[in-house]
Amino acid sequence: MSLPDPNLNISNIAEQLESENSRDRLRALVSLRDLAPEEAVPLILKVIDDENLQIRSMAVFALGLKHTEDCFPVLAKILETENDYGIRADAAGAMGYLQDNRAVEPLLRAFYEDTEWLVRFSAAVSLGNLGDLRAYDALMQALDSKETMLHQAAIAALGEVGDIRCVDAILRFAQSDDWLTRQRLAEALGNLNCDKSLSALNYLVKDAHPQVASAARYALERLAPNQESL
Question: In degrees rounded to 5, what are phi and psi of residue 229?
Fold first, then answer.
């Protein structure tokens, strides 16, 4: 059996992306996962301003997964100018996959200036993905938010940034009523090697929630492979 002509596939996808039927455009977007970024991105950009919100959301996030040099300015513009906060959140989330530290500044602006917590949450997660120390102050500020999900994002991101100055601040969440916050804390402490982290993890390994205890156990193994935790 002969292999299909890849150029024909791309041509078909491009044609589908211009279909009046939104299902056709959605199917075409899904099929882009099999293309190289250089092939996929120009096609994704065809529907980046689609009238269908689901298609726009998929297209924006796809720019993070199939990234080229063309993706950063597009995502930065969407993050700054898009009216729909869900699309802005998608753009912020996609920027974390670019592994491009130019994204730190627009993400910080979104974190400080956007009025929607979901956008700020996505920005915090992406700042953690980038692991840039410039995000430290913003993430520390997020610890004082009223939104539990922002606490979770900030704790996880601070762990990825890896600056042990944050340990005292995040340890106050060791007795949080929210088990997922405690799990994020345990995971973060696994990246913050100091005596206080080890002590807190030996406390969290006895947590009543099995996923918290498991995360703490794994973090202890990472920090001190030879330590026998309770």
Answer: -90, 155
